[in-house]
Write a structure and sequence with these properties.
Arc Repressor Mutant, subunit A; alpha+beta; globular
Amino acid sequence: MPRVNRTDRLYALVEELRACAPRRLTSRELAARFEVSARTIERDIGALQQAGVPIYADVGRGGGYTLDRSRTLPPLNFTPSEAVAVAITLARADGSPYSKAARTALQKIVTAMSDGDGDAARELADRIRFLVPPDEPVPASVPAVLEEAMTARRVVRMQYEDVAGTRTARDVEPVAFTASARTWYLIGWCRLRDAARVFRIDRVRGAALLEETAPDRRFDELPLDPRAAISRALEFG
């Protein structure tokens, strides 16, 4: 096949692995297919894996790369404007829960678009510019361990510093995330206080997942002052 630029090659690599799945392809086979070195293919595969593409590698005789077809997207009919609208929304979500996952999701969407629409979306996105005041504070990002605790419903052990600067160790059962302006909070059941509490993300000084699965607590059932945790459910679907 004719030589292509790296962006097109990454897209073609995914499609090649999708078409051959569940059969495995070696780096040498892929290198011959795209007329590059096996080392270049290995770097490309690594970049795709970091972007969240479910590519699996087996070593040894009969090994190679394969793609989990059940977890990939076929070509999408997103218009360039729709893709850019998603990108604008995500660009405003820095510091929010799962913001890193949102960026990899956007990469998957653009990768799964047709070549023409993907190029048009990138060109349109380049004409969107944000004005950022030089003194605007950078929002504190939600630590990945808190995201994982919420997703996996695991108890998390936190080092938390209150408004007075007092630091305490707390085991918390995560229940929900909420936000006020650009500040994010974790709502959970604090075992230290044996009560529902709202923890400001930028005051979490350390966190670690415990092996224990958290009890199934619903936000609406928490004995919590609504003024302390004003929120609304994310409309999904």
